[in-house]
Structure formats: C-alpha cells, structure tokens
Amino acid sequence: MRDEPYRWIEAIQDRRDYIEEQLRPGSPVVGLSYNEGIALVTLSTGQRKIFEVHDRIALSAIGHPADIERLRMLVTDTASLQGFQNATDDVNLHRLTHFVLAHTFKQAFESIVGEAYIIKMLLAELGGNPSENRWTLLNYDGNVHTETTASVIGGTEAIEAQMKNYLCTAANLETLSTPQTDRTLTNALHVCLKTWAFGRELSLQEGEPETDADTVSDEELRNVINEALDTSEIEAGVLERTQSGTSKFRLLHSNDIQPALDEW
Amino acid sequence: MNHTGEFLSNHLEMTNREGSSVINHKGDFLSLLRHANAPLQLGMPEITTQQRPIGDVEVTHSTTVITVRYDEGVMVAGDRRATAGTAVIYDRADKVLQIDNFSVLAISGSPAIAYEIARILEHSFQYFRRSQLQELSLEGKLRMLSRLIRENLSMALQGIGGVIPIFALYDTTSTEMHKGKIFFYDALGAHFENVDFATTGSGSIWIRGVLRYLNRWGETDLQDMEQRQATCTLLRLLETASEYDAATSGYNAAAQIFPTIKTVTAAGVQTLADEYLAECYAEAVS
Fold it and tell me: Of the ranges A35-44, B43-52, B216-225, which one carries the lowest mean pLDDT score?
C-alpha cells in the first residue's frame, strides 16, 4: 500500500475518521493549576480515569480502556525504572512524552496494517513553582502540545478548541499558558466542572457543535452535571506542593469536591 | 531508535507479541527490574568467604535503634554514629528512614545495604500503588522486606553487609485500638511482630532489659506514654546505650547533634525537631 501514496493517505484519513468517531463520546478531562498545585477533573462511570504516574506526574485519558491501560503501564513502568536507576528528580514529563510516548503513538497510528491506539492523553507535571507546571496533551497520532497553566482533552478537535476558549474565559486567562497563582482549589474545581459540562453539552450534539460559550448559562451547565451524575461520578486528582513526602498525588474525596458544586 | 534503550523495545515487543495484553508485572517492582535487564543485586556474589578472608576490609557499621509503641502510634529513635572497626566514620548518619506516609524502617548493620533496602522498599510500595491502583497490604509490605533481607543473605554470611531492620508503622486499616505496629526481622528474613517495643544494633543488648523492666513494672505502660514521656524515655535509653557501647553516640552538645526520632501516627510520619529534643534533654537527661 505504501507503493501507492494516494491509497496510503486515504487509509490514514479513514483511520483518523474512525478514531475520532470512537473518541467523540468520551468524557472530557479538564486540568487547571491552582495556588498549591494542579487539579485534573472528569466524570467517570466506574472505571478510573485519573492516575498517578510518578511523584510529580499524573495522567488522564479518553479512549479505549484497554489502550489507556496499556499505555498507562508503559509510562508508569518507564518512570518507575528511570526514577529507581537514576533519581526521582531525573524523571520528567518532557522525557516521558517526547522520548517514550509520542513515537509509540505515531508508530501505531501510521502502521496501517496494525492496530491503532484509540486514545487521547493528558499528562500533568507539578513544577517547583506555578510557572514550571506542565500540561502535555498527546494526540493518538503522536502530536504533542504543551501548556503551563491549563489544558483540556475532549472528544474531537472542534470540541476541544471550544472547551479551551470557554476555560480561558471562565478562568480569566488570556491563554492556557498565562501564569496565575491566586486560585483556590475549590475555584479550580468549579471552573473545571463548568468546562467539563460545556464540553459534554457539545459532544452530545450531532454534527458540528453549536452551543456558544457566550450564551450558555451557568444553570444549563449545572443541569448537564446533574444529569451526568445519575450515571457517573466526579473524579478529581491533584498534585499538591504542600503534600508531605515525595509523592504529591492524591485523589480527592467527595467532601473536597462538594464546595465546588456549592459555589454554583 | 528510542531513548530509553532496551527496556522500551522489550516492552513494546512483548506488547505486540501478546496481542492486547500488556506485560503484567502484577505490581512487582523486582519483576519489572528483571524485565528491564537490571535485576536487583544487593550483594556481591562473585566474592566468597574463601576468596576474601573476613576482617581485611573495614566495613562501616551503625548501631542502636529503638522502637516503642506510645499512645498516639509508634516512636522510632536512632543514634547518629557510623563506625568501621574502632574508627568513627560519621556522626550524622540517619538510621531511621521514612518508607511511605505511614511506615519507617530503622536500621542497624551495614548502612550501604540498609539504605539500598530502604530505597527499594520505597520504590516497590510506590510501584505497586501506581500500577495496581491500591496500596500494598501490610502483609505484602512485610513480605517484600523479608525477600530483600533474604536476597542479602550472602553478604550477611560474609559478615560485611548484614542488615537487621525494625519496621514500624501505623496501620490505618487495623480494627484494633492501638494501630501502631512494630516488626523485627532476623538475618534470614523471618519477621516477628513485637507488641510493645523492639531494639537492635550493638548497643541494644544494654537496653533491652531496661525496656522489658519499664514495660512490666514501670509507672506507665510503654504504650500508654504520651509523646513527651516517650521521647524522654528513648533519649535516656540511647544515652545509656552510648555509655556502654562505643559504636553508639549520645547527644553531642558541642556540635549540637541530636539522635533522630520519628513518630508514626494517624497524622503520618513526623520527625521531632532538634529544639524539642533539646528541651527534652534539658528536662530528662542532663
């Protein structure tokens, strides 16, 4: 097939359409920095979606559960080994995403006779100070995109772009890398949940998403959350600078999350 | 070519060969190391006692550690001296090492091996939690430490790398009233739960009897002591051990070097501050 470039490009495009279609209904994940760390938020139905990778690195993804699990283990194993053989300070997000994951994703995507990974991954790294935080988004085709303050993964690129705009407005950020240091955890969770609800609303619409970030009301978004809560629950994980010990990750309990819902 | 070397290509190769399943180490860190062609090697197997007579290498040793249960959990104290033969090598050695949020390892014997065991334990517990999405159970943690001590048997038999640790923890899942637990090990890796106290190292022979006496006939049972009383008791015991054992240091007033004391309670692991220890010394020891 590689002898016929046109067919190869067509096959890649078909593959892209297929994966996008599979990813579309996935529950989005929203990440935002706050004064003491960074928070990852999503709604999930039973299966965990937010994971600890290493002392200062967390991961979340949308896609096929088997693919998420396989790649989560790859990155966890690699980080654990590097941390043990060298030192935990030598494990960093850039090396994991660019030297391990990106080409694994790309290789699987472009070898059209093999199986592709149906996945979109968001990894977060807690820096020594807020300007050193890193959010890295890995697309199923191996493309990598990094921000410092916030990030989003959603079902399609169009949904993702709109969610990013919404997140910037709701969090009062110029771009997703605008430094910000005074946000509380409760406020960060609140903004993440609103952005999640906005993304959910978009992914439920057929064809091109139509909901406008400027006109959608807080109440409508709250209803989206309430409806989703019938079948799923809020999952949130943080990497917190104030946490004692070397591991900075913890999953939040419902009583940590409740104040963010009360703020609505 | 990937930048993580052989491990990653093995990983992917296995992933492809096994179809949809990932390589499953079942959370076992030692298995992960083996798979990455970096198997754990605590000792130096090529050296045998026949080839190298014991005694011609001065190996660093270290000395008295004590663990007691007190009303909030467990308290672990260690002196700071490391010796090789009759020489004092270092007087700021830390022999009480935090392993995770609710456990510490107190070591006596060869620090080189002991630090490595502590590091492997820490990474193993973390790897289990991160890969299996749950904490390793208490029994699992104890067994892991047993395995590591057994791996080190050849070094222990040669008399150059023996490690006899005490593992102290706060068992948040326990239904018992007192959640502080103390386990001690022998050189073969058997673990024993010691209810109220444990001590090990060359200075421990001078104080084990005192601990027994205090626990049986003391005014307060060890496990009912409050933090300050427990701290004062442990400082006195270390001072006693240092009086008779040259490899144990007491409080060094000139250099302001205090023993290490850590508490493991519902609030996690805490290291008692030097200022607090100075107060306790003034009150109870000097």
Answer: B43-52
| Residues of A with Cβ-Cβ distance to B4 under 8 angstroms | 78, 82, 99-100
Give yes or no: B63 in active site. yes
Q: Which residues of A touch B (CB under 8 A)?
A: 48, 51-54, 66, 69-70, 73-74, 76-78, 80-85, 95, 99-100, 103-104, 114, 244-245, 247
CA distance B240 to B250: 8
Nearest to B156 by CA among B188, B132, B179, B124: B188
Select from A48, A70, A247 the Cβ nearest to the Cβ of B22. Answer: A70
- Residue B13 parent element (H or E): helix B6-17
- Measure in Å the smallest separation between the Cα of A109 and chain B Cα atoms: 14
Q: Say if the Cβ atoms of B4 and A82 lie within 8 Å.
A: yes
Provide the pLDDT confidence category of residue B21 given band limits of 50, 70 and 90. very low
Q: How far apart are CA B151 and CA B153, in angstroms?
A: 6
Cβ distance of A99 and B2 shorter than 8 Å: yes
Return all residues near A9 (Cβ < 8 A) that are at least 6 apart. none
Q: What is the Cα–Cα distance from B256 to A156, expressed in whole angstroms?
A: 63
Report chain A residues whose CB lies below 8 A from the CB of B126: 80, 247
ipTM: 0.91
Q: Of all residues in chain A, what percent are helix, strand and coil, respectively (each to 5)? A: 45, 20, 35
CA dihedral A179, A184, A188, A193 (to 10 degrees): -170
Confidence of residue B74 (pLDDT cuts 50, 70, 90): very high
pTM metric for this prediction: 0.87
Provide the percentage of residues in chain A whose pLDDT is more than 90: 69
Q: For residues A158 and A27, is the Cβ–Cβ distance under 8 A?
A: no
List the single best residue of A77, A92, A117 to mutate versus B (max B Cβ within 10 A).
Answer: A77
If one counts every other C-beta atom within 10 angstroms of the C-beta of residue A139, the result is 20
B101/A244 CB distance under 8 A: yes
DSSP output for B128-140: HHHHHSSPPPHHH
- Among residues B63, B200, B231, B248, the one annotated as catalytic is B63
What does the pLDDT look like over A121-137, one tens digit per residue? 999 999 988 889 999 99
- Interior angle at CA B134, CA B131 and CA B136, nearest 5: 95
